[in-house]
Amino acid sequence: MTAYRIAADVAKVAGKLIASIPEHRHLSDVRVEYLFLDKPPTHGGKIVLGRARRVGGLGAVFANLDEHHAGTVCEAPRPFFVVEIAEPIWRELNADRRKALVDHELMHCRSERNEVTGERVLKIRPHDFEEFAAILRRHGLWTAAAQDAGAEVAEQLALAIDSVVAGAAELAGDDDDLDDM
């Protein structure tokens, strides 16, 4: 059986991301709870580092029950998000990767205003890109989503190469004789 506990460390990282990244600012007035799982879940045979869920309806009622409301009729509370992180994985990640993991999970959390009622509508956003590695090997970047993802990967590879070149130049000591080679 999985055990859960409040993930204050994750909430702290998320708070900074929500305040500093424009794509997350819509979450500044939305309830988001952060939990650690004692062991990483799996999906399709792969370890799941984290996941975001929308909790509404009956789930939100049970999440908000306390002894003071026992036996009373109440309206269903507003939906909210729960971000679950596998604690053993969290402990192994450095600060940058923890930040990336929380950023990823927050990207799943969408909050939009209903044009008619003005109420917040919470939704889970799917990934922008999903494909099998074997399909990419056989057919390349065959969809617009694959092409967009490929462009993002290419940009990150270029940055990594620039970083390696800069590091090599620094190690070489910016010697003018290197230009003659």
Explain this structure.
With 181 residues, the protein is of the alpha+beta class. The protein has two domains: 4-126, 2-Layer Sandwich (Zincin-like), CATH 3.30.2010; 134-180. Helix content is 43%, strand content 20%. The strands form three sheets. A four-stranded mixed β-sheet has the order 1-2-6-5. Strands 3-4 form a two-stranded antiparallel sheet. Strands 7-8 form a two-stranded antiparallel sheet. Strand 7 (109-113) and strand 8 form a beta hairpin. The model is unreliable at 177-181 (pLDDT under 50).
Descriptive tags:
181 residues; globular; four-stranded mixed β-sheet; Zincin-like; 2 domains; disordered C terminus; two-stranded antiparallel ribbon; alpha+beta
Concise account of the structure shown:
This protein has 181 residues and is of the alpha+beta class. Helices cover 43% and strands 20% of the residues.
Unreliable stretches, pLDDT < 50, 5 or more residues? Answer: 177-181
Q: Briefly, what CATH class of the largest domain?
A: Alpha Beta
Which series of helices and strands comes N to C? EHEEEEHEHHEEHH
Query: What overall form do the CA principal axes indicate?
Result: globular
Mean pLDDT: 87
Please give the alpha-carbon distance between the first and last residues: 63 Å
Q: Strand order, main sheet: write it out.
A: 1-2-6-5
Beta content comes to 15-25%
User: What name is given to the CATH topology of the largest domain?
Assistant: Zincin-like
CATH architecture of the largest domain: 2-Layer Sandwich
Q: Which percent bin holds the helix content?
A: 40-55%
Number of helices: 6
Please count the beta strands (DSSP E, at least 2 residues each).
8
Calculate Rg over CA atoms: 22 Å
Main beta sheet:
4 strands, mixed
Quaternary state of this entry equals single chain
Could you say how many structural domains there are in total? 2
Helix and strand composition category? alpha+beta
